[in-house]
Predict the structure.
Amino acid sequence: MILHDIYTIIAEPSRRRILDCLLRSDATVKDLTEELGLSQPLISSHLRLLRESGLVRVQADAQRRIYSLDASPLTGVDDWLSTYRAKWNQHVDRLEEHLDRQKRIKKENLQ
Amino acid sequence: MILHDIYTIIAEPSRRRILDCLLRSDATVKDLTEELGLSQPLISSHLRLLRESGLVRVQADAQRRIYSLDASPLTGVDDWLSTYRAKWNQHVDRLEEHLDRQKRIKKENLQ
DNA sequence: AACTAGTATAAATAATCGTTTATATAAATA
DNA sequence: TATTTATATAAACGATTATTTATACTAGTT
């Protein structure tokens, strides 16, 4: 078996939808199949990967399995992203500067 | 051909390494092959996807192609992550509470 | 005890993707 | 003009992965 890193885990749209569901509230496998309109085995296989990557926890309730979110493994992604945050802020800053300049020019032309 | 969303783009380790390189400084294809130890066609094919997703820009310089980073498409990922940030902060908070309690108990035992 | 509900897993498949090899293009150099 | 340098791309291959189908297991329910 292959160890999945967190980036490939969240690359899958259905898995992100599962996480988004669990962010709102804990849910059983059946809950998730109904909310997302995916087959039970598919949900289960995604949940397995999410479990192995530490993003979800399971708690047994009779036949049911109640899944809940543990977002902490996402901090790694957040750390990686934070290096880039400065960059796109530069972009936004430059855009704002540009708009300010435009505004100033417009004003000057009106005088 | 298939449209790649930003999550699958950054799921690939080599592509993240390319982005990390470009974060430090602009680079030609050759620069990247030497820095990352990957074949030229492989670098080029990764760069193509990065270009298509808007994460990099190209500028021609004779035969060379100078690639530079545009981090702004990553804001989408950042927005998605921000929903989860509150969650893992809860975890950290609980951990801190726990440690504080431990400390307090230790102190009380020493008195 | 038979049946139903909820879930996991194994096998099979189809599609996708990373990687290599080979080739084409375009600009610079000799 | 022939050669070299830098890059892109197409074809081929192997590996991985998402998804379906079928099945097994476990805990209630009748």
